[in-house]
Structure formats: structure tokens, C-alpha cells
UniProtKB/TrEMBL annotation:
Major subcellular location class: membrane
InterPro entries listed in its UniProt record: Glyco_transf_92, Nucleotide-diphossugar_trans
Native source organism of the sequence: Gossypium stocksii
Protein name: Glycosyltransferase family 92 protein
TM stretches of this protein: 21-40
Similarity-based family: Belongs to the glycosyltransferase 92 family.
UniProt topology in membrane: Single-pass membrane protein
Record carries keyword Transmembrane helix: yes
Subcellular location: Membrane
Length: 605
């Protein structure tokens, strides 16, 4: 009887004992986890291992708050940045990074000594920009004397090992011999390369070139599947090649494929099994011996260019194209943007493409303000110096699916309609109405307008109401011209000389009479503004001001030397005709009736 009661008590109390045991174990686990978090929050015990370098610090007060814990985690967690490529320019070192960088002010460039990698120096980055939607560019100072240009990046004050940013690639490319950009265009790839030494302003023989698409296998370090295609056309810094069939059929899978230009001595087949880049060892060609011998005769250029199937470039607007867009390339001209964009928007420009060539004057803030005010402006980071023609070719590709017409002109150039002004006719949307008259033309694909060059007009400081109102004295005869083009009717080479493009066969340009439309080019402004041009000029085939070449060229200021020294009586030079036409046109149409202020002045308040 007692044994039966004992068994009954065991059956009754056993579940209670097990629950009690589980409860104690859960409590112990929770306390252990709490202690572990306290351990992490202690500054005496930072996590430092070989495989995991970031330091995680969790404040003890944030343990009970999920949001606070996440905020602290993201604020403190710093992974080493992966430097994909480096390009050495005359005045800075450019790093291409495969990460988005939010806090550039906390980033340092790290240089190691050439003969002693343990001897390192750090300098703050010059600037950081998003690039091609998938990478970032970091501009670093030139390396100190006797230090390598194979620089790394390090988060300041976080103790992250910068050496990880050096392990994948220590190559440093030279800016003047490099494949620097690539873009999809239908069934072709348009590749931009510096150092091809092709004739300016003329087409070249495409048989000299091929394109190499790097389809590197993820499980192979030294070799991958490389696709070679022949060039279709070539001109200046642009080579157009047919896309490999594997990419044409599935372009979405081609994201991030590296492409380069091969200087070919013989024709090549499309698919060849060979190592990536220009290495030929360990090749596994289908016909190993024959293909290996053939490819040794080809020279692949260094490349940082990658193909990305950007939908903004490829997809047409659902609500129809803009009638008129504008594209320009600039360096440190942020103060001029407001007047230029606001005035030409009033004339009918609907979309703006700003190619920024390494500005450091707060241009992004200006563009964001204009875009916030519905001026439809986008900034495209274009870090490649002396490539204005190629940049315009790239912009023509980019704008083709958005715009019927694209104007290519500078931020110191302003369209003016003297006949309409003299007759007192309305001026708003005049430029858009002009190009719309030819949007259905079967012959006209470009509208050219002559330029009048204005001088300092007696001023010694920048005019407060802008260049259109302040500069009123110019040279007698017009200099050069600028163009508005139909991007879908350009020659497939995309050949241009900045001022105009080469068109498809069967189409021609139209020269509009000076009495109807003219461009006021405020070329020779007050010395404070003009001397910035001595730093560098963006066009490929235009000599920089410091170089003692082409002294008589119209691209140079007459009588000006090679040094940024103000000539005597500069404020009175380049003044042959007093011309207040555009000033009066602007004040009559855009000035506030009550205050006399102009729209771009209000934006500065």
C-alpha cells in the first residue's frame, strides 16, 4: 500500500520538478546573456580578433530597448572598405570603393612606405561621391614622398585594420591610359578609354580594337570565362562593340561585368576560355595552343569600367519624352548654376544633366535645393579629367530615352532672342517652342546658334544680380557656336567636338540667324572668376592655360600668358560693342515688379 502511494506521489510531483528545473535553466540562460551583453558594453574588453575587426559597443542602458540597440550597433559597427581600383591623377589619388560611404568626414587615406609596409601615414580624404549607382569614389591627397600610391582606407578612431582594403588589389592605374567608363546601348556596349591616341574629330578604324568582357568565375582566383567581341565603330575616346550573345539574352545578369578595350592585331572569335585581364598563363582555351598563341598578340588596356544595366538609361518615360533637356560638364561653378538653370527653365528647358568634374564648392547642396524647387536637376559624378567630349557622348546616351532634344552648352552661356525682345513679344518657353518646330523633321537633327563673347564690362567684382544683368560689353564678331541635338539621330560613334555632334546619314544641322537667336557667352568675366580657368580645362583636345601651346587659338584669351596673373586693365578688355539686350530682356520679364529682384537672387536668401 505504501509503495503504491509512493509511486502516485512520484507521478504527481515529477512534472512539477521538471518545470522547476526548466524555469531555473531559463533564468540562468537569461542572466548569462545579460552578463554577456554587459561584457560587450565594457570598454575594457573590446572584441579584437583576426577574422572580425569591428568593435561592437552596446551601452548598458540600451539593452531593454530594441531600437536603441540597433541604432548603437549601426553607429559603432565599421567594416573595412574594399578598394577595387586606384587611379593616379596629377593632383589627387582616386579610389573606387564597392561600398556606400555615409560619413566621409570620419574616413582617412592610409599610405605605406615603399620599402617598409609597417611605416604608414594617414591623411583625411578630400571628398567622397556616389558613383554609377553601385560604387563610391574617394579622392585622396597625393601620397607623400617615398610612400606608395596603393593607398587604403580606414575609419578614424575605430581601430579597423586598413590592410584588408589592400589585400584584393594593389594596382594603381594612370589616368591617361585607362578604360574608365562603359554603358549598354541596345545590343552594343559603348566603352570609353583614354590613351587610344586616336585622331581628334575623326572616325578611326574599328578593326584595330576588340572589347573584352570579364565573366570571372567566383571559384577561380586567376582565371575566368572571358568573352571577346569585335569593335563596330571607334572615334576619339569611344569604342562601340557588339554585346556577347550571353549578355544580350540576359542583360540583368550582367551587372558589374568588367569591360576593357583590346588593341587587336588579328580578328578574334567571340567565346574564348582564357584568364581574366591580360594574364595568359594557365589558360584553358578550347583549342589551347592555337588560341594562346593568338591572344598573346593582343594587348588589353587597364580598366576600371563596369557594365551596369541601369533602368534609367534603358527605359523610356511612360508619359512621353521631355521636349527639351540640357547637359553640361563643370568644375567648381556652383554659384553660377542658379541663374543658368532658372533662366533657361523659363525659356523651356525641362530636364538637366550636370556632369560634375571633381567640384569641391558645395555643388551638391545647390543641386538639391534646385531639385527641391522642382527644377528637375540631376548630378552625375564624372571624375575623369580632360574628357568633356566623352562626357557629352555619355550624356547623349543617357538622355536619349528621356529627351527629344538636348542642348550642350556651358553655365556661362545664355540663349537670347533679340527679335522677340525688340518686338515686345512674350519670352517664356521660346527655346522649347523653337526646337519643337523641328521635332518631326525628316532632315534637321541639330540646331546651331552663334556665340557673342562678353568681357568684364568695366567691373572689378562679380555682379550681384548675375552675369546676364552685369556684363554688357562684348566683342564685335561672334565666336564659335553651340548646338541642340536630337540624341536618337546622332552617328553611332557619338563623335562630337563639344560644340556640335556628327549626325546620322541623311540628316543635317540648321544655322539659325543671329537676328533671331544668339548665345551670350560670358567668357571673360572679372578676374576673380576668370582665373579659376587656369586650374584645368575639361575638354580633351584643348590645351590648358598653363601650357605654352596654341597661343593664337580662339580657345585662349588673346594676349594672356600661361600664368594666373591679372593683366593690366583687365576690366576694360574685350569690350568693342555695348550690348544691353539680354539685360533688358531679363529685367523686363523676370524681375519682381515691386522689388526689382530676380529669381536667382531670392534663392540666395
Amino acid at each position: 500500500m505504501e509503495s503504491e502511494q509512493r509511486l502516485k506521489r512520484k507521478r504527481i510531483y515529477r512534472p512539477y520538478s521538471r518545470a522547476q528545473f526548466l524555469s531555473r535553466r531559463s533564468l540562468i540562460l537569461c542572466l548569462s546573456f545579460f552578463v554577456f551583453l554587459m561584457f560587450l558594453s565594457s570598454e575594457r574588453f573590446p572584441i579584437r580578433t583576426v577574422s572580425f575587426h569591428p568593435v561592437v559597443s552596446v551601452p548598458s542602458l540600451s539593452i531593454l530597448s530594441k531600437n536603441s540597440l540597433q541604432d548603437s550597433f549601426h553607429a559603432k559597427l565599421r567594416f573595412p572598405l574594399s578598394v577595387e581600383d586606384r587611379v593616379l591623377f596629377p593632383d589627387h589619388l582616386l579610389l573606387l570603393v564597392s561600398d556606400k560611404i555615409d560619413e566621409a568626414e570620419k574616413l582617412d587615406c592610409v599610405y605605406h612606405k615603399v620599402l617598409n609596409h609597417k611605416d604608414v601615414v594617414c591623411q583625411r580624404v578630400l571628398s567622397v561621391d556616389e558613383f554609377d549607382g553601385f560604387r563610391s569614389v574617394v579622392r585622396c591627397p597625393l601620397p607623400p614622398w617615398n610612400y606608395s600610391a596603393a593607398a587604403g582606407l580606414m575609419w578614424r578612431g575605430h581601430g579597423v585594420d586598413y590592410s584588408l582594403s589592400l589585400r584584393s588589389n594593389r594596382t594603381v592605374h594612370s589616368w591617361d591610359r585607362l578604360v574608365y567608363e562603359a554603358a549598354f546601348d541596345g545590343k552594343t556596349a559603348v566603352v570609353f578609354a583614354k590613351g587610344l591616341n586616336l585622331r581628334p574629330h575623326k572616325e578611326s578604324d574599328p578593326n584595330r580594337f576588340m572589347c573584352q568582357f570579364g565573366l570571372k568565375n567566383s571559384d577561380e582566383e586567376d582565371e575566368g570565362f572571358v568573352v571577346m567581341t569585335e569593335a563596330i565603330v571607334a572615334a576619339q575616346e569611344v569604342v562601340r562593340c557588339s554585346l556577347p550573345s550571353s549578355i544580350r539574352s540576359k542583360p540583368d545578369l550582367a551587372q558589374g561585368i568588367q569591360v576593357t578595350v583590346v588593341l587587336a592585331s588579328r580578328n578574334d572569335v567571340e567565346h574564348v576560355r582564357m584568364p581574366s585581364a591580360v594574364r595568359f598563363r594557365n589558360s584553358r582555351s578550347y583549342d589551347h595552343g592555337r588560341n594562346r598563341m593568338r591572344h598573346k598578340e593582343n594587348i588589353a588596356m587597364p580598366s576600371v569600367a563596369k557594365l551596369y544595366n541601369s533602368k534609367s538609361y534603358q527605359t523610356k518615360r511612360n508619359d512621353g519624352k521631355f521636349e527639351l533637356c540640357a547637359c553640361t560638364m563643370l568644375w567648381n561653378q556652383a554659384p553660377a548654376l542658379r541663374e543658368w538653370i532658372m533662366y533657361h527653365t523659363w525659356l523651356g528647358v525641362e530636364r538637366w544633366f550636370i556632369y560634375d568634374n571633381n567640384s569641391d564648392d558645395g555643388i551638391q547642396d545647390v543641386i538639391e535645393e534646385l531639385d527641391f524647387q522642382d527644377y528637375n536637376v540631376s548630378r552625375h559624378t564624372w571624375p575623369w579629367i580632360k574628357t568633356q567630349e566623352a562626357g557629352f557622348s555619355h550624356c547623349a546616351l543617357r538622355a536619349r530615352n528621356e529627351c527629344k532634344w538636348v542642348g550642350f552648352f556651358d553655365v556661362d552661356e545664355f540663349y537670347y532672342f533679340p527679335r522677340h525682345h525688340r518686338r515686345g513679344l512674350p519670352g517664356q518657353n521660346l527655346l522649347r517652342s523653337l526646337v519643337a518646330n523641328y521635332s518631326s523633321s525628316r532632315m534637321i537633327a541639330e540646331i546651331r546658334t552663334a556665340c557673342h563673347s562678353f568681357g568684364p564690362s568695366g567691373l572689378s567684382s562679380p555682379p550681384l544680380q548675375g552675369v546676364t544683368v552685369g556684363y554688357t560689353c562684348r566683342l564685335q564678331s561672334p565666336e564659335r557656336h553651340k548646338s541642340i541635338v536630337r540624341p536618337d539621330l546622332l552617328n553611332e560613334t557619338l563623335l562630337n567636338v563639344v560644340h556640335h555632334f556628327q549626325l546620322k546619314k541623311g540628316f543635317r544641322y540648321l544655322n539659325v540667324p543671329e537676328s533671331s537667336i544668339i548665345i551670350n557667352h560670358y567668357k571673360y568675366q572679372v578676374w576673380e572668376t576668370f582665373r579659376a580657368k587656369f586650374f584645368r580645362r575639361v575638354a580633351t583636345y584643348v590645351v590648358d592655360w598653363q601650357e605654352n601651346q596654341n597661343q593664337g587659338s580662339k580657345d585662349r584669351a588673346p594676349g594672356l600668358g600661361t600664368e594666373a596673373i591679372e593683366p593690366p586693365n583687365w576690366r576694360k578688355q574685350f569690350c568693342e560693342v555695348w550690348d544691353t539686350g539680354l539685360r533688358d530682356f531679363v529685367l523686363a520679364n523676370l524681375a519682381d515688379p515691386a522689388t526689382g529682384s530676380l529669381p536667382w537672387e531670392k534663392s540666395l536668401l
